[in-house]
Amino acid sequence: MDKKIALIILNWNQPQLTFDTLDSIFKCQSKGFSYHVFLVDNGSTDDSLNLFKAKYKKNLNVTILETGDNLGYAGGNNFGLKAALKEKFDYYLVANNDILVAPDFLQKLVDASLKHPKAILTPKIYFAPGFEFHQDRYTKNEIGKVIWAVGSQLDWNNIYGSNIGIDEVDHGQYDKIQPKIDFISGCCFLISHEILEKIGIFDEKFYLYMEDSDLSQRAVIAGYELRLVPESVIWHCNSGSSKPGSSLQDYFITRNRLLFGFRYANPRTKFALFRESIKFLFTGSSWRKRGVIDFYFGRFGKGSWK
């Protein structure tokens, strides 16, 4: 019997990006499996919903869901996952709405999952051409082969995440040696029904940032693997809309590093995080201060974010 895959795609005020992503996905090969798209509109304030309904109303392969409010990355994706879980798909693919995919990317992920049923899987993710952080570094032939992520790592002493291989040109260096992955980016991953039932969906306390680290850590603790599937390739149209040092990052990363660190880090790191948080109360930006205060007062989810 063919496997069934639910694709969760989250949109917030970016209908054209979402159209491009779905147009790319609909060209995918699907041998031995079928897939259905759960397109979640996360409380868009533009014309996204009307545009989606007009384009996909006759497409039986797309279910449009409306959250009614911006639930953040965690809550928005959970909205789609909850709907899909009721239908008991074999696999769930969570993917950003700003990716372009190779026609066989999903086939390669499904094939790998059959070999590694106890793993959450990530494709090899390149920067989409023109979206590289350092465009002047690369030759014309290297564009489209610049790595965005082949999995992600955590600096456990400071609780900061980074993408493995970022900015490197792909010469096959990650094709045979499986990198040590601490967490899989929410940009794109495939997870089985078994694993999702065991570890649960995203923790909506995080709202935005580090919810993928938390999900991955719960999987590792439960005895599952995090694996790169280098044969599966996608391109990320990384917009960098929330730049380092932005108010958005100041607030959510400050608060969520404390939330994640106090759950999973060793005592020494927890103490370092505590000391740093006290320092932020006196020297941090206004949003960092709010992030610290909200953590200690248990204000999670959207918290104090405007």
TrEMBL record:
Residue intervals passing through the bilayer: none
Pfam family, one: Glycos_transf_2
Gene3D superfamilies (alphabetical): Spore Coat Polysaccharide Biosynthesis Protein SpsA, Chain A
Coiled-coil segments: none
Domain Glycosyltransferase 2-like: 8-199
InterPro entries noted in UniProt: Glyco_trans_2-like, Nucleotide-diphossugar_trans
Molecular function GO labels: glycosyltransferase activity
Keyword Glycosyltransferase: yes
Domain of life, source organism: Bacteria
Family, as annotated: Belongs to the glycosyltransferase 2 family.
Protein name: Glycosyltransferase 2-like domain-containing protein
